[in-house]
Amino acid sequence: MKYELKPFWNRYFKFDWKFGLFLLVIVCVTRFVLVLKANETGNYSLIGLIMFLSAIIPFVFLSKYGRNQIGIKTTKKLKYLILALGIGIGFSVILHFLGQGLYGKSYENWYVYIGKSYNIPENISVQGKRTMFLIMAIMGMIFSPIGEELFFRGIVHGSFAKSVGVKKASFIDSSAFALTHISHFGLVFVNKNWDFYLVPGIIWVLGMFIASLLFFEMKKRTDSLLGAILCHSGFNLGMIYCIFYLI
């Protein structure tokens, strides 16, 4: 009989919703606190560590069979991989125009607030801005898409799906992903004070929820987490482009 968890972990856990909830509490609560602290201090170095830990969790806990079951495998569905990237870019641009239309360049616009953490100099040269954009885009397309998709659409989704089915599990992991992103926007640190943007925050969370469902749909279409990762990478690329060149 094949088990999703490695033999060592089978002594302590079952691959079910309780295991998924355990991972969500440990990782998401820690991440939430660290992101808020980073927004206050401007030091985001520990966020990279959280993404790294999120990426390795499936390899720590899951057997080869388990990793295959959650989608850590190759795919030959190239057209869907390209489509995934395009859908991610497209949805991020839609969120840009929604935020721009509703809130302009105020901090109630999610991309304006997130862009604050990039520390783009006001008098930066065209070449300097292009170089900074490329660096941010490459980092944004690699670290969080891999870490978050292996975690949310991978091991967390798989553990919940084992108990409640694929469809319900997709709503659970998407809800967890969206709520975790309140620390990125919604609960904000502006002018050295904490504030909560209720309506913009709700729109942002709904946007992240929809984005998560799109990531999962691309995982299904490609039968691989590569679809989700590429869709997420496209979203981040579009968001970073909007922050650098459209705001």
Tell me about this structure.
The protein is mainly alpha-helical and 247 residues long. It has one domain (7-246). It has helices at 7-10, 17-41, 45-61, 64-70, 78-103, 110-116, 126-164, 166-180, 198-222, 225-246, and strands at residues 187-190, 193-196. A two-stranded antiparallel sheet has the order 1-2. A hairpin with a 2-residue loop joins strand 1 (187-190) and strand 2. The protein is globular.
Terminal CA distance: 55 Å
State the shape.
Answer: globular
Content of β-strand: under 5%
Bin the helical content: over 70%
SS-derived structural category: mainly alpha
Mean pLDDT across every amino acid position:
97
| Continuous helix count | 10
Biggest beta sheet summary? 2 strands, antiparallel
Order of helices and strands: HHHHHHHHEEHH
Which sequence of strands runs across the widest sheet?
1-2
